[in-house]
Amino acid sequence: MSDTKTPLVSLLVPICNVEQYLEQCLESAVSQTLKDIEIICINDGSTDGSLAIIQSFAARDPRIRIIDKPNSGYGDSMNKGIEAARGTYIAILESDDFMEPEALEYMAGRCEAEQLDLLKCNFWLYWSKPGIEQLNRHNLYFSAVSPEMVLMGVHRAIDVPEIFWAKASIWSVMYRRSFLNEHGIRFLPTPGASFQDTSFSFKAFACAERLAYSSRAFLHYRQDNEKSSVNNPGKVFCVCDEHEEIERFLNEDRPDLKPELDCIRAKMKYYNFHWNLYRLSDELRLEFLPRFSAEMRKEFEAGNMQVVEGDMARYGFFKEELEEARCIAYDSKFYGVKFTCGNTGKLGTLMHYLKAGGPGYVARVFADKAGSR
User: Fold this and answer.
1) Is residue 333's pLDDT more than 80?
2) Phi, psi of 188 (to 5 degrees)
3) Which of the chain's termini has less CB crowding within 10 Å, N or C?
């Protein structure tokens, strides 16, 4: 490292009881072709062998810094990592994922050359275990960054807002650290919560003045970690907490952005709540649906649910989406019956794609299938 006090990139690795995948993750971090980095491992009270693995890597690579703390949740871990970071840029590597060797060199190079606040790349869906996905162990997540998005060049996300309803995937983004600090962009530090990338990602894209995309994929996003928050049906209402934080952010921290973003925020809420409904069991869906219904009614009454056609369609709802949102808001009993009728055949396939990436992924998958006919 040319300057141990100011590395070019700080790579944050939040860790909690993930010894099964941690060595592969950290090996990909220390093998980066960009050497001017620090790797900040935040151990969130792991009770398995994770800390010993971190310490073994730190013993052979002085670029690794360890934050060892009692369990306080993902959001608090990430905030502590951001505060400890010294790099010009910040990147994130989840401890059950791994990245290609040239990832940080490419991303930092783009950020430096174009003076970006954020650079978002594509990524790979990855299955490590044999099974139904064995023939497709790596799928390019092509709804994260489309060719059209790459061609936008440097822009404000508010002006071309598709990114707000793509999968948050905060670990496929590089952030300028001064940008995060200037706007006070941090995670919601609720202990035991999940999906805390939702509000963080919204804040970052909302405030970014210089954003760009790359269709290149470096991150391998593991799909078959049973402990992943995506696979935890018990955290039914965590996504609601994230959207409350988004509303608080617009009302209190950035009211200047509220007029431009309220309809975008409402559409994002619809997509995220819809995704959450799909991932739950029938029983938990019926528990979540009243909250979903109430939130949609609130958005309709506030005038945030709008159909916009033509070139401005990206800012509002398609008619079919709005009809479904209205059904959820005002006829949720009917909607509940619709979603407790079993998950086999085509519905099972649909739910697989929803769990993998949400409505945006599903839309692009089916658009691609239609285009290939």
Assistant:
1) no
2) -75, 115
3) C
Q: Give the DSSP per-residue string, 97-161.
A: -EE-TTHHHHHHHHHHHHT-SEEEEEEEEE--SSSTTGGGSEEE-TTTS-HHHHTT-SB-TTTSG
Beta bridge partners of 14: 42
Exposure on the CB side of residue 235, measured as CA atoms within 13 A = 18
DSSP state of 175: E
- Confidence (pLDDT) at 126: 86
Tokens of 126: 């990855």
Question: pTM of the full predicted structure?
Answer: 0.85
Q: Rounded mean pLDDT of the chain?
A: 85
Across the strands, what pairs with 334? none
Over residues 91-122, the pLDDT tens digits come to 999 999 999 999 999 999 999 999 999 999 99
- Residue 259, judged by CB atoms within 10 A of its CB (0-12, 13-18, 19+), counts as exposed
Euclidean distance between CA atoms 160 and 155, whole angstroms: 8
| 3-state class (DSSP) for residue 351 | helix
Q: In this predicted structure, which of 11-20, 110-119, 193-202, 232-241 has the lowest mean pLDDT?
A: 232-241
Q: What is the DSSP letter of 308?
A: -
Structure tokens at 218: 């470096």
CA distance 271 to 278: 11
DSSP per-residue string spanning 220-273: EEES--TTSGGG-TT-TTHHHHHHHHHHHIIIII-TTTHHHHHHHHHHHHHHHH
**Residue 361 near residue 141, CB atoms below 8 Å:** yes
* pLDDT tens digit sequence for 243-262: 999 999 999 999 999 999 99
Helix (H) or strand (E) holding 42: strand 37-44
Cα 203 to Cα 155: distance, rounded to the nearest angstrom: 16
Residue 139's region, left for phi above 0, alpha for psi from -120 to 50, else beta, is beta
CB 2 within 8 A of CB 36: yes
Q: Rg for the chain (alpha carbons), in Å?
A: 20
> H or E segment at 204?
helix 197-207
